[in-house]
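Can anyone check this?
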Amino acid sequence: MKKALLLTALLAAVGAAQAQSATYAIDPSHTAVTFEAKHFGTSTLRGRWDKKEGTVTLDKAAKTGKVEFTIDMASLTTGTAPFDGHLKSKDFFAVEEFPTAKFVGDKFTFNGDKVASVAGELTLRGKTNPVTLTATNFNCYENPRLKREVCGGDFETTIQRSQWGIVYAMPAVTPDAIRLLVQVEAIKQ
C-alpha cells in the first residue's frame, strides 16, 4: 500500500512539473528587432526588421526554456529606401541568397523567477555562431483583453558582424561591433 501511495505521489509530482512548461507564440505587433551601428564614429545608424515569427517554451519552475525566432530579412527598413537596398545587397545581408535569419536559444539563466539571459545560436548569411541575449527587463502578466498570460522583455547583445562574413566598409565606415536589441512579447498558447 505504501509503495502504491509513493508511486502515485511521484507520478503526481512528475505531472505537476510537466504542467509548468508552457508554449508562447511571438506576438509580432509587440515584438521588434533593431540594430545600431556607428557611422564614421559620429552618429548611430539604426534599422529594424518588421516581419518576424517564433515560439518560446518556458518552464519557470525548472528554469529552462527554448526559443526559436525567425526574421524575414527582406523586411529590413531604416526609413531610407536607397540605404535599405544597400543593406539588403551582397555587401551586407545578401537577402536574395539568405532570406531569413534564425535564432535558436536553449540555455536560459534566471534571476529569481525572471529570465536574465538566453544563449543559443544565430544563423545569418548561412553561418551559425553563438549569441547570448541579455535581458534588461522581463515580466509575465495576465493580458486583460486576451485572458491569457503574456511574457516578454527587452534583450540585447553586441555581435561582431565579421563572424557572419559581413565585412563591407569595415572598420572605416562602420565598425565590426553591431548592437542588436530585441523587444519581445509572446502569448501563452
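Reply from J.R.: I decoded it. The chain has one domain: 21-188.
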